[in-house]
Give the backbone structure.
Amino acid sequence: MLDLNTKIIGKKIICIQEVDSTNEFAKEIASQEKEGTVVVADIQRRGKGRKLRSWVSPKGGLWMSVILKPNLHPEHMPKLVFISALAVVETLAEFGIEGKIKWPNDVLVNRKKICGILSEGKYSTDSVEYVVLGIGLNVNNEIPVDLLDVAISMKDVLGFRIPLVEVFRSLLEKLDKWYLRYLDGQYALILEEWKAYSAVIGREVRIVGDKEEIIGTAVDVSDDGSLIIALKDGALKKIYYGDVSLRFS
Ligand code: BT5
């Protein structure tokens, strides 16, 4: 039994040995579940990233999805990715690892991706039915050769394996703490903390979106989840989607 100290997150935990995707599984059951229910799997056969990219999910990693039903306007949904990244960074810190957040959904260690976050949801223009927050954290799993330049695990950083269940417990507790702050409307605190751990703020970045590529300096994040870029001519532009790479690093 997991001895959890949480108010909402993890009151019910569904553990599966092997599943296509914990996010897909969680979405299927989300309407019937109370918020806080967590789906966790040893292995994902078809772990998903954004835009149909795949997320490599062999045994040894933490692959989980949390069902949330915040009674808030959908405009506040992007901040759920921020609180997830904060919970991951704090969890890493508990194990002596310094993580940095790369907008919008990555946590990096030594400039390599240790965690990806995928938020999906069902909502109308003015209310949220549910949000599924998917978190993939490389813990003891092997990183495939073709990702070794861009991905890293906690085991690789520390040089030894750590109990997956301890990482899971820590992450659920941190997520619970940040989710309570989120429900309490502590958005300024969330943005400030996020910025404190950001790998992008103050840096020159290149952002590849669906239709355009932008180069500029990342100066801030906004309450609506966007990244604010100062362009060469000094104009500010809000970016809502894209892949960021840090320049001159
Ligand atoms: C993400 O997408 O980073 C979101 C990943 C979310 C995974 C979790 S696991 C639990 C839940 N269930 C799911 O099915 N998904 C969620 P994106 O920013 O699009 O990044 C995807 C890219 O990351 C891939 O194209 C690879 O380059 C890289 N990648 C794949 N597997 C990785 C891994 N295990 N570690 C680090 N990088 C990886």
